[in-house]
Amino acid sequence: MAKNWLMGIDIGAGSLKTMIVAADGRVGGSAAVDINTHSAHPGWSEQDPSDWWLALCETVPRALAQARVKPQEIAAIGFSAGAHTPVLEDAAGKVIRPAILWSDGRSSEEANELLEKFGVEILATGCNRPAPTWTQSQLLWLARHEPETISRAERLYIAKDWLRSRLTGTWETDPTEAVGTLLFDGAKNFWSERLCSMIDWDMRKLPPIVKPTSVVGTVTRAAAYSSGLAAGTPVVCGSSDTSVEAFGAGAIAQGQGTVKLATAAAVSIIGCEPHLHPTLINYPFVMPGHWYTITATNSCASAHRWLRDRFFLEQGGNGAEAFCVMDRLAAAAVPGADGLLFHPYLQGERAPYWDPLLRGDFVGMTFRHDRGHFVRALYEGIAFSLRDALEQLRAQNLDMCEARIIGGGARSATWRQIVADILGISMLVPRVTDASFGAALIAGVGIGVFADEGAAAEQCVSVIARHDPDSARRSMYEEMYGIYHDAALQLIQVNHRLSALAKV
What we know:
Blueprint: E1 5-11, E2 15-22, E3 27-34, E4 46-47, H1 49-67, E5 74-81, E6 86-89, E7 99-100, H2 108-126, H3 135-145, H4 147-152, E8 155-158, H5 159-168, H6 175-181, E9 184-185, E10 190-191, H7 193-197, E11 215-218, H8 221-227, E12 234-236, E13 239-240, H9 241-249, E14 257-261, E15 265-271, E16 281-284, E17 291-297, H10 301-311, H11 319-332, E18 341-343, E19 361-363, H12 371-394, E20 402-406, H13 413-423, E21 426-430, H14 435-446, H15 453-460, E22 463-467, H16 471-490, H17 492-502
Parallel strand pairs: 1-5, 5-13, 14-20, 20-21
Antiparallel strand pairs: 1-2, 2-3, 4-7, 6-8, 9-10, 11-12, 14-15, 15-17, 16-17, 18-19, 21-22
Helix pairs in contact: 2-3, 9-14, 11-12, 12-13, 14-15
């Protein structure tokens, strides 16, 4: 039977998606299942890895059925997921505890301690500054608060690597995920004994490093029985979701980049080297010899969902319909929302403040403002926050004249145009933007369906829409951004005082 299809599997912030892709980039079918995130305490975010496996076993047969593809027609499988998320197994191969997500803030004290003691050294070696997002500070928190977890741990996986190991029984990761642990020497391309020593982590518990396109094994008979896949199907390592998303969107060359409107929002630019600066995040890219540099705002789709759930979702209402209503209201509201500003700091903020105590707000409310103004202000406020992030890249002489816009928020043409106007950058809309699509293309590179990564992107990626900045709105938004930025600075101490009061 001809093996004409590729499969990509991605663990997102709130769901797992499986996609089946042809060698010309056509999407044959896909399926997604929600994944529960648990918050036992404020600021905690955890998921049970077994839920990922159950979701894989549910979505694979559904995607195959939708594509009318037999399991034996899948040529290879690739994986992606959010970075930093550690899964710890004991000597018997049993998961010890739930996985701590990148959005978890419990290790802020440990991150601050690492920053104070070793910040310059960590940035120089690991290419990034300590923060609660990174695996290094998460492991230090576990060592102090759950020492029995650390003593039992024999293997560390990152999320997508653990899920992939359910199919192959193998243990490895790629350089992007390794850098995401903050235990890896980005320049020398191997695990750093020095970075591990800062948290007393045993390097023998870290996986071997392979290329994202490496075939690491095949689907075992047991995994085939549970998942609906064919035994013997090649499995490729894959990489972090941000890397394969940019690749799958067609941002593959130096100076190209992406704007992502997802749970968090991010701006990334492709380059040939990391740019070491405390406000920037650096990862090796799936394109050989390239890196991508990210700066991000914490709350995007999460803030959008919060506004929907609190003010637009009737009891028992349809969430998708509520989003459509909100989008129509935002499109009808005047640009600038009649002077209403929104700071999206509902979960603290990353660039440029790196301050977990910042709080969200609407500034400038009057009696004339209605629901549409609030949605418009949210769209614009997140775009202003992305502008804050972009300025961190521009300060390091990194810029772009156009970007591929991806993520769930990019489905809104109104929001896409707002982002183009506020950033002053043309937004290109790829035909497919899912990380699972990029993971499938990486699988194709791994088994030789494509000559290389560039050939895969050229053959499979296309752009279906473009939004150029409007000069009149651009001028108005430029003035409004100055007010947004000044208000954010003025409210820092107010936010700190409110955060302290809330703890009483």
